[in-house]
């Protein structure tokens, strides 16, 4: 069945890396069509529009996945357009599961000391629609010494249950052996109790998958000292955000990481984790590997075995030192794309 992909390049290097990702996709000659949408800073500045309800409905009804670049432009210092577009996509499409693979592609890229033969290969599954990110709260007596500000941590049974179940299903699908719940139940007793209770309920239904619990502060430390303890991590929005960036730091940085924002019943949004990097935009310096890994992730979820060819080519390039400047190499954005395409097409 032919798949349709909505492409949102965004701003800065997002435009460049997505363009290279599409070159790679074209080289595979798959039964996939795509359409570009300019939901970006230029449109925001010209029209004051980020993403309309009708445009969102079009994405939902007519496409199988969204291939996303990055948002952020120095002309919009408050990043209002980025929030309006990304949060509308996340919340209105109910993309409840953020999936962030944390995989070390070359031992030379990690700042931590690993034992001989040890590597880093875990997945953080983050609840994507609740918690502190709902923006519920307020302030009182602003600007005075008596000022009070609150941000509310919101969790629902539905939201917690579906992300935990997704984590266990993900573990089965990807042949992973353990799911670890990360929270802070000894302090956040109400939300934490909900997470722990539901985790235990769901875990009982998956007897072949090991399950355990870890406090967020301990997990943050263990990500650095004993990352081999983790396989699949499931956690709330805020804690997942923190752990994801720690994960990026131990495998070489944001330039190599991809993520997926998933609703199992509708559509997925796939994006590299890095930002728009306006300082290098248009200079043919951006590292497109995260966009390639993101493309691989999207193709795998759509059922294409070609995904593995992309992942293998990226890993081979990093192993052989064929990289852009940010990873110590001297290749341009186009150079590394040409090399990846050559490696992949030779395997078709």
TrEMBL record:
Keywords of the record, alphabetical order, are: Amino-acid biosynthesis, Branched-chain amino acid biosynthesis, Leucine biosynthesis, Magnesium, Manganese, Metal-binding, NAD, Oxidoreductase
Q: Does the keyword Magnesium apply?
A: yes
Task: Name one molecular function that GO assigns to this entry.
Answer: NAD binding
The Swiss-Prot or TrEMBL record lists the needed cofactor(s) as: Mg(2+); Mn(2+)
Checking InterPro entries in the record gives:
ICDH/IPMDH, IsoCit/isopropylmalate_DH_CS, IsoPropMal-DH-like_dom
| Gene Ontology BP terms | L-leucine biosynthetic process
**Where are its TM segments located?**
none
A Pfam family annotated for this chain is Iso_dh
Q: Where is the Isopropylmalate dehydrogenase-like domain?
A: 4-340
The domain of life is Bacteria
Look up the EC number in the record and give it.
1.1.1.85
Iron-sulfur as a keyword of this entry, yes or no, is no
Family matches, as PROSITE patterns: IDH_IMDH
Q: What class of enzyme is it?
A: oxidoreductase
- What does the subunit section of this Swiss-Prot or TrEMBL entry state? Homodimer.
Family from the record: Belongs to the isocitrate and isopropylmalate dehydrogenases family. LeuB type 1 subfamily.
Protein name, per record: 3-isopropylmalate dehydrogenase
Native organism is: Pseudoalteromonas piscicida
């Amino acid at each position: 069945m032919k798949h349709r992909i909505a492409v949102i390049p965004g701003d800065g290097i997002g435009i460049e890396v997505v363009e290279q990702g599409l070159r790679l996709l074209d080289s595979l000659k798959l039964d996939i069509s795509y359409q570009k949408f300019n939901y970006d800073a230029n449109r925001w500045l010209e029209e004051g529009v980020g993403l309309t309800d009708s445009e969102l409905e079009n994405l939902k009804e007519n496409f199988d996945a969204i291939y996303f670049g990055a948002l952020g432009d120095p002309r919009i210092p408050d990043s209002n357009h980025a929030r309006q577009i990304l949060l509308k996509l996340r919340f209105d499409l109910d993309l409840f599961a953020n999936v962030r693979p944390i995989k070390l592609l070359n031992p030379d890229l990690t700042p931590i000391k690993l034992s001989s033969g040890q590597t880093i290969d875990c997945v953080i599954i983050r609840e994507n629609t609740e918690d502190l990110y709902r923006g519920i709260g307020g302030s009182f007596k602003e600007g005075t010494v008596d000022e009070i500000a609150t941000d509310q941590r919101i969790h629902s049974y539905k939201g917690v249950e579906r992300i935990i179940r997704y984590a266990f299903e993900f573990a089965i699908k990807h042949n992973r052996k353990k799911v670890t719940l990360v929270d802070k139940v000894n302090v956040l007793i109400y939300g934490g109790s909900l997470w722990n209770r539901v985790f235990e309920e769901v875990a009982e239904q998956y007897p072949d998958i090991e399950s355990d619990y870890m406090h967020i502060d301990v997990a943050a430390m263990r990500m650095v000292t004993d990352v081999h303890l983790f396989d699949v991590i499931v956690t709330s929005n805020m804690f997942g955000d923190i752990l994801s960036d720690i994960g990026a730091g131990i495998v070489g940085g944001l330039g190599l990481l991809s993520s997926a924002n998933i609703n199992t019943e509708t559509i997925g949004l796939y994006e590299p984790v890095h930002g728009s990097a306006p300082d290098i935009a248009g200079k043919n310096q951006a590292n497109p590997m995260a966009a390639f890994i993101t493309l691989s992730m999207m193709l795998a979820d759509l059922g294409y075995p070609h995904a593995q060819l992309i992942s293998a080519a990226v890993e081979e390039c990093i192993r052989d030192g064929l990289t852009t400047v940010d990873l110590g190499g001297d290749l341009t954005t186009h150079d590394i794309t040409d090399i990846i395409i050559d490696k992949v097409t030779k395997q078709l």
